């Protein structure tokens, strides 16, 4: 963002007034971070792409109803993305239960056309995600926001409705429990 670029609050206000251009600037500014956040929650590039689109579609629909509490729209967008992923996972679980009930065998889509690097990334992310799922929910949320999506502790505290010290404690506990996944859970930095 250069000095001439409007901040997120200004862009959000313009988008709420109907400016598709302002919303497009917000998308360009935050899409990569939201996409990576979704990948870290799903361990799938394809699902992350779908969840990115669903997140920004929901943001567009709610733009007139939401007022940004912080300077950046990113913490709110990441919270929306987290909820979109959770809802999709719940929906998928329900669909799978229904399929089992009617005893239909459906093939899982073959992702053979994905690049080998992406497959390796997904497997490492699945392993990490399995370990992360064992963490308490409050530690998972703090880890996803502060470590993976590089949201400041102060912004994460505002999003989660807790103190900054509590966010720091949750992140620290999560990191210590995930020590064997150091390449995907970097050492702490103050933000």
Q: Secondary structure elements and their pairing?
A:
Elements: H1 8-16, H2 20-42, H3 45-62, H4 74-101, H5 116-133, H6 137-148, H7 153-160, H8 164-177
Helix pairs in contact: 1-2, 2-3, 2-4, 3-4, 6-8, 7-8
Structure description:
This protein starts with 7 loop residues before the first helix and ends in a 14-residue tail after the last helix. The mean pLDDT is 83. The protein contains eight helices and no strands. The chain is globular, with a radius of gyration of 18 Å. The protein is mainly alpha-helical and 191 residues long. It has a domain at 8-110: Rna Polymerase Sigma Factor, Chain: A.
**Total beta-strand segments:** 0
Any low-confidence stretches, pLDDT <50, length ≥5?
none
**Head-to-tail CA distance between termini:** 18 Å
Residues in helices, as a percent range: 55-70%
Could you state the oligomeric state of the chains shown?
single chain
Major sheet: size, sense and barrel closure? none
Q: What would CATH call the class of the domain at 8-110?
A: Mainly Alpha
Keywords:
single chain; 191 residues; mainly alpha; Rna Polymerase Sigma Factor, Chain: A
Give the structure's gist in a few sentences.
It contains 8 helices and no strands.
């Amino acid at each position: 963002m250069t000095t001439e670029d409007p901040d997120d609050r200004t862009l959000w206000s313009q988008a709420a007034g109907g400016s598709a251009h302002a919303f497009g600037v917000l998308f360009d500014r935050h899409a990569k971070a939201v996409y990576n956040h979704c990948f870290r929650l799903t361990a799938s590039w394809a699902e992350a792409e779908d969840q990115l689109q669903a997140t920004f579609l929901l943001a567009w629909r709610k733009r007139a109803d939401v007022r940004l509490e912080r300077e950046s729209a990113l913490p709110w967008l990441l919270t929306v993305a987290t909820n979109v992923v959770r809802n999709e996972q719940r929906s998928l679980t329900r669909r799978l239960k229904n399929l089992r009930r009617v005893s239909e065998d459906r093939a899982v889509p073959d992702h053979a056309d994905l690049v080998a690097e992406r497959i390796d990334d997904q497997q490492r992310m699945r392993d990490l995600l399995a370990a992360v799922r064992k963490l308490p929910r409050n530690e998972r949320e703090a880890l996803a926001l502060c470590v993976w999506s590089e949201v400041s502790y102060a912004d994460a505290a505002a999003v989660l409705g807790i103190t900054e010290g509590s966010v720091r404690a949750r992140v620290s506990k999560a990191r210590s429990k995930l020590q064997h996944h150091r390449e995907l859970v970097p050492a702490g930095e103050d933000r």
